[in-house]
């Protein structure tokens, strides 16, 4: 049970003067229940790649399968939920309920079933039932984004793909969203996050991919990512690596401030004790 | 994503350097002679003039044909209608309709006219940057009494320019939106009413909010709707006027 | 050069955005304004450019009051804004034409506009892009173009409204380097952000919350004295780490704002 991308090539506007290669020989496999980061600079082909996961785009060569089915098959649409970048004007429902019911209605569900799906989505994200009567336009930026995610979840996807979910959010809303994603993942939903800035979520991820000008240049665990050397790293990781090169006994694959704190305290620990006894 | 349609191709040719007012007027002259021409011989002559201009402009023919491509279906439709609906000597018949010789001639002439017109228009846009075009139109509109209605020629030119700017912007947001709705199972064929609602409501909001963004950006850069100058101040030189005169004479001789 | 006194602002629908803000910004200063979404920072900077007008109090730019409409052109020439979303602020079809938009509005002669366009493209290092369409540029290039558009108006003060929030790390660094070049030319820079890494070398860090200024001091003092998490801003991870270490009883570490500072402290 997985999304499998095999030797995919994709060109925009093939055969015209605007032809542009977006993906070159990309192969990867994302298993059920994983938390995956796909990184890369803007224009590296990330958004093109995820549009292959539910058949919005079809590869020029190579193939994409979802749980064994071709990604272009209709049945795949409900399995792979996708939330695109900048959903600032995406919501259209008069109420949150109407917004969330849109997906299930499209997939042919009726009255009580729709209600069940909507509540399932709200519950998964830890949103209260009272929100469903509100107008999406009145919500705060972070809540709007959660409602947009809920709109996708109401289709009961197995895989949730998010394109730059944190962009434009402040610290509070970021942590709100990150904990929502963690909750979803612990409920068995596969999370695929696409971002040019992977540092915020490295500690959550099972696997990291990095795209550069349409090619997959890295695939590995977050620890391997940290060891790679030429990919953008969180500042904390750089600090720990530099401490290591200066001869300190610390791990170099730490992305999280709390973890770095524990590691440095451990390293400095004895020092502090001697300092204290001297006084 | 930029489109092939009526694209500006930066360059330094004689045509690029001409005053935009001259080129716009020449376009009008060309359209008049295209519509006055009535034989294949005349059209061939106009085509020859066009070919010479294209050589001078050093614009790739692909740009010109790129502007034609989306019109092909429309042209084919016009041609077919003319072919079958004109009375005269039958050539062959299809589903009870007779294609006539006269229809063939009339249809060919008509679509040739359209093609010539589109070709000249795409040459105009290929050799004239949009800001030159607006500057040219603005100056040509200046003598009009539009100010009496509270609209200056500056406003008109900017309005034109902004609509050029907005189309690709809105097209892009529309694609984003459609992709996300399709991902939520929207099937526009099966449920057109729902698609219309779920796509148009956010699109209208997007249009308004981007309009507001652009308006704020313009205002913060001192836009006041009057007294604008231009980076490329078009200047009518002797060369420009002579070229226009020469072009007009050629076009008149041709037909 | 900017003098804000008891500024209040209420949106037409009655929600208050600014509550009695007073602030002076001198020529050549580099000021960072931070705060959570909706804290009033965007409204504040729109007052400096006369895009919003005070409901109460006053805003003066170079001694000119923003409430008087006749001063608006002069104020907007003095203070230029670069916005967050690069796509909706372009007006020209080519890089050159877009940069020329401001000077064109000021009615300058064509030759002067060319000079200004040329020099601001040079400062931002985008000369080779002159005939590109703004839409075809990368995110970082777009923001550099937007800054060049403000430079061409010979503004004394440039306001950057979360210009790096949509950029990837590499483009972000490019833009920040370009901003540094502007600061070297003694231009006042006001930068709105919720990433405080960009504030470490600022002269002043201002924190806003629910429409008021809650902190206004050097970045080091603000980091030291305030519990910034309460105001919904992102503390640079390195600064947070050094704060944690200091409060856990490693007093010789003190407060480090950058990675190198912390490294030095740890190595001793």
CATH superfamily (homologous) name of the largest domain in chain A: P-loop containing nucleotide triphosphate hydrolases
CATH structural fold name of the largest domain in chain A: Rossmann fold
Q: Give the class of chain C from helix and strand content and strand pairing.
A: alpha/beta
| Count of domains of chain C | 2
Q: What fraction of residues of chain C sit in β-strands?
A: 15-25%
CATH superfamily of the largest domain in chain C: P-loop containing nucleotide triphosphate hydrolases
Please, how many helices of chain C?
9
Largest sheet of chain C: 6 strands, mixed
Briefly note the CATH topology name of the largest domain in chain C: Rossmann fold
Number of strands of chain A: 10
CATH A-level architecture of the largest domain in chain C = 3-Layer(aba) Sandwich
Topology:
The complex is a heterotrimer of chains A (279), B (255) and C (268).
Chain A: E1 2-12, E2 20-31, E3 35-40, H1 46-50, E4 61-66, E5 69-70, H2 74-79, E6 80-83, H3 96-106, H4 111-124, H5 141-153, E7 159-163, H6 171-186, E8 190-195, E9 207-212, E10 215-220, H7 222-228, H8 235-245, H9 257-278
Parallel strand pairs in A: 3-8, 3-9, 6-7, 7-8
Antiparallel strand pairs in A: 1-2, 1-4, 4-5, 9-10
Helix pairs in contact in A: 3-4, 3-5, 4-5, 5-6
Chain B: H1 14-17, H2 20-36, H3 40-57, H4 61-68, H5 72-85, E1 90-94, E2 97-100, H6 101-127, H7 130-141, H8 153-183, H9 192-220, H10 238-254
Antiparallel strand pairs in B: 1-2
Chain C: E1 2-10, E2 16-25, E3 30-34, H1 41-48, E4 56-61, E5 64-65, H2 72-78, E6 79-82, H3 95-105, H4 110-124, H5 139-151, E7 157-161, H6 169-184, E8 188-193, E9 204-209, E10 212-217, H7 219-225, H8 237-247, H9 259-267
Parallel strand pairs in C: 3-8, 3-9, 6-7, 7-8
Antiparallel strand pairs in C: 1-2, 1-4, 4-5, 9-10
Helix pairs in contact in C: 3-4, 3-5, 4-5, 5-6
Structure explained in plain terms:
The complex is a heterotrimer of chains A (279), B (255) and C (268). In chain A, helix 3 (96-106) runs parallel beside helix 5 (141-153). In chain A, a hairpin with a 2-residue loop joins strand 4 (61-66) and strand 5 (69-70). Chain A has two domains: 2-233, P-loop containing nucleotide triphosphate hydrolases (Rossmann fold); 234-279, no CATH class. The termini of chain A are far apart. Chain A contains nine helices and ten strands. The longest helix of chain A has 22 residues, at 257-278. Chain A is an alpha/beta fold. By secondary structure, chain B is mostly helical. Chain B folds into two domains: 1-129 and 235-255, no CATH class; 146-231, no CATH class. In chain B, 69% of the residues lie in helices and 4% in strands. Chain B has ten helices and two strands, in the order H-H-H-H-H-E-E-H-H-H-H-H. Chain B has a two-stranded antiparallel sheet. In chain B, helix 5 (72-85) runs antiparallel to helix 6 (101-127), helix 7 crosses helix 8 and helix 8 (153-183) packs across helix 9 (192-220). Chain C is of the alpha/beta class and 268 residues long. Chain C folds into two domains: 2-235, 3-Layer(aba) Sandwich (Rossmann fold), CATH 3.40.50; 236-268, no CATH class. Chain C has helices spanning 41-48, 72-78, 95-105, 110-124, 139-151, 169-184, 219-225, 237-247, 259-267; strands at residues 2-10, 16-25, 30-34, 56-61, 64-65, 79-82, 157-161, 188-193, 204-209, 212-217. In chain C, helix 3 (95-105) crosses helix 4 and helix 3 (95-105) packs parallel to helix 5. The B-C interface holds B 2, 8, 10, 129-131, 161-162, 164-165, 168-169, 210, 213-214, 216-224, 227-233 and C 49, 51, 73, 76-77, 80-81, 83, 85, 87-94, 96-97, 100-110, 113-114, 117, 131, 133, 135-136, 149-150, 153.
